[in-house]
Structure formats: C-alpha cells, structure tokens
Amino acid sequence: MLFYHSQSFMNLNRNNRQHHVKLKTVFFTAALLSVVTLAWVFLIFDRNLYCLNHHQSSHSVSSIFPWEPTDSENLVNRTSLPASWKSNGSYTRRDLKMRHILFGIAGSAQLWPFRKEYVKLWWRPAEMRGFVWLEELARDQENELLPPIKVSEDVGNFSYTNPAGHPSGIRIARIVQEAFRLNLPDIRWFVMGDDDTFFAPDNLLEVLRKYDHNDMFYIGNPSESHSSNTYFSHGMAFGGGGIAISYPLAKALSNVLDECLERYPFLFGSDDRLHACISELGVPLTKEAGFHQFDIHGDAFGLMAAHPIAPFVSMHHLDEVGRFFPGYSALDGLHRLANALRTEPGSFLQQCICYDRRNKVTFSISIGYVVQVYLYVLLPKDLGRPEITFKAWNKKDGRGEFDLDTRSAIKSRCNKPLLFYLDTINHQGSDVVSTYKLDPSTVRRRWRLLCSSIPPYLNPVQQIHISSKPMTEHWYKVPRRQCCKITYVKGYELGITVQHCQRGNGRVT
C-alpha cells in the first residue's frame, strides 16, 4: 500500500514537471514571437524614418552632376505649373487659342528693315502675342502690323570659343528664358523662329493641340541636309524651322539656362546650345514633319510639290530658295502663297494624285501651289518623294546628301511635266475653289525638243479648276493623302475634284 502511494506520488511529480516544462515552452515561444514582432516593427518604422530623414537632408549633399538641382523643394517649385492649370478639368487641348502662344522671333538690327516684310506675311497683330528680339534698337522701331521689338540682354559675360560661329548664338538661345521671365499671363507655349521664318499660324495651333501643355515638350524638326544633322544632331530642332517649347519646359530652362550655357562655350550657334540644355533636362525632341528648316540652296520646287502628309507649319531661309512662281519676285510669290495659306490652311501644299488611265496621264496636285501633269504613269510611291530640284546646305545634290526620301531629278526634258501654277483661290459656299494657269514655257520646251504629242483633250487646256473641301479636325489627328478625279474638260479649262480616297480612286488598275 505504501509502495502504491509512493509510486503514485512519483507519477504525480513527474506529471507536474512535464506540465511545468510545457508551460515554460509556451511562455518562451510567446516571448520570442513578441520580441521578433517588436523588432520587425521597429525595423520597418526606423527604416522609413531613416529614408524620410535622408530625403529631407539630401539637399545638404553636393550633387554628382552640376546640372542637378540641390534643393528638393526648389525642384518642385521649378516644375510646378500655374495654380489655374492644375488637373481640374478646366483646360483641354481643344481650348488652346492663339493667345496662349508667345512667339519669340530672333533677328538683327541690321537686317530687320528688310526681313520685317517676311514677318508681315503671317503675323496677325489682333490675335497673336510675341516679340522680335534684336541686339540693339533698329530703324522703323514700331509698326502696328508687326510684333513689338525688344532688345536682348547683354551676353558679353558669357564665354564663346567657337572660331567658326558668332556669339549672337548665346543671345538667341536665351530668348526663351527672357520671354518666360516677362511673366505674361495665360501663356502655354513658347514658339521660337527667325526673322526669315514663314509660319502657318493656324496649322501650328492645330499641331500644338495634339500635346498636353502641362508636360515638358520640345517640338520641331531636324534639317533636310544630312551634313547639317551630322554636325549638330539628328535629335535637334533647327530654330529657323521653328521650335515649340511647353510652359513647364520653359520654366525649367529659365532656372538653369545661364549656368548650362557656360558649359558649352565651344558650340556653334543658338539651336545647338538650346538642344544641349534641354538634353540635360532629359527631354527628347518630338518631331513634327511640317516644320521646315529648308537647309537648301536653289529651287525649292521639289519640296513644295511633294509635301509630307502632315500640316505645313513653317519654312525658312526665304532668301535662299529662289522664286516660287515664274514671272514673280520671291516676295510677290510669297504673298501669293500666304493668301492660299490663309484661305485654307489644312490643305495648303497637300499632295493629291489622280490618273487618266485611258491616256496614261498622271495628275499631281500641290494645293495652293502647282499642278503637275505627267504624260505617263508615275506611281504614288515615286510622286510622294520630292524631286531633287535643289542642293543641300553643303551645295551638293546627291540623294545621300538629304535626310528625307527623295528622287533624282528627271533627266529627259521630254519627261518633265506640264506645270500649272496657282492663279486664284477662294471659298465658294462650303467648297474651296482654286485655279491654276499653264506655264507656257513647259509646252514650248516640248515643241522645241520634238517630244511625243500631248493627248488631244489636253492640247487646248490653259487652266485647271480644282474644287475641294476644307480639312477636318480629324485629318490633323490622322492625316491621309487625298485623291482626285477629272470631272470635266470644257475648251480651255479642265476641272478636277479633290476628295477622300475611295476604292479604285487614286490607283492605276
């Protein structure tokens, strides 16, 4: 009995010890989990606190790159937009008006008395805002038909070491900065150009409406000449063709431009300096095919007769490209082009193609400029390439000298087209009606060379009458070449209707 009780007591003690061990294990495990949890929580919050403190104090550390801002708060201020521009739905791209664009026209006091005639062709004093920036006061200082003149700030303290260029490149590069610092209200875009740039304001407005002015945009186009792009950059907007800079990018530039310019004393001009500083901000070029630097010499006919399928925005070097119409001076020809542009901006220089399949005749129309009549079939693939009637900026004319799709000049004079140049253009109801008169020298050339005969119905034609519709808003978003068809031949006049391409229209079958 005693043994039984002793054995029972021993078993009880053993059970108690095991129970205590289990309790200790539970408590130890719970304590360990608590410690681990607390350590994890402390680690997370401590890391966030470290990151926050590090972010707040990072401005005290020198930046590796001199163009990086050293103050995070200053960075926010540099890229912030006017309060009324915040994403509240009050602004849309379609509500962009001409008054939201500030033009900066680079010129020189010496040339301004002559170049101002180019600006008069497109400037609208009642609608547009901008300034002509000169290095000093010029004769004919004020003119109500022209933008006001401003004298640029002195740039004598900036370094310039390029032996082939001119320090005026620094002054012109700073126009966007000086224009921004005028702090004019309701400006969304800054558009730079030269005093010999011919702008199409309505088409420029439609192009800019494609982009959100709240973002950083650098819009333009490289040169037509390969050597120019190779020397400067294939990703640089050439200023003579026009450069559009959105407000946020102009704001960022205004804070860093002077410091940036000091890093590039060896560059040639203004465009490459502006491009270098925009590159430091990480903003690439947005290319728009309608901006034309016209880095060419000679006859621009080939480029004008085969414009890209894009709205015409600008052209440059008006002193270099010769006469646009036979029998007219360069300036008189520009007046005629300007009238066509005002009448129907979207269609201006847009190419239309149609065929007389029975007689194997090709009609290529550049609306507002010229109609070419080829007495053989020339396909759209070839017609869309500008014929080389000009030379590159280095005065060479090989196809490899151009950074655009070209075709060689027609060698056989019998294969050259009959040319009908713009005579009149106006609105008739909802249509745009234009007439083009025959250049008689193109017929006399065929007679002298005893070329093949002209189809009988074309022999008496002295004028081509074209009826078209204005371009729609949709075309600016999704451009497409239009087609045409011959509608009548009456005595000395041939009629053509321009329309949207349909099945079989504009094709050779």
TrEMBL record:
It comes from Ceratopteris richardii. This is Uncharacterized protein. InterPro entries: DUF604. It comes from the Eukaryota. Keywords: Membrane, Transmembrane, Transmembrane helix. PANTHER family: FRINGE-RELATED. The chain crosses the membrane at residues 21-45. Gene3D superfamilies: 3.90.550.50.
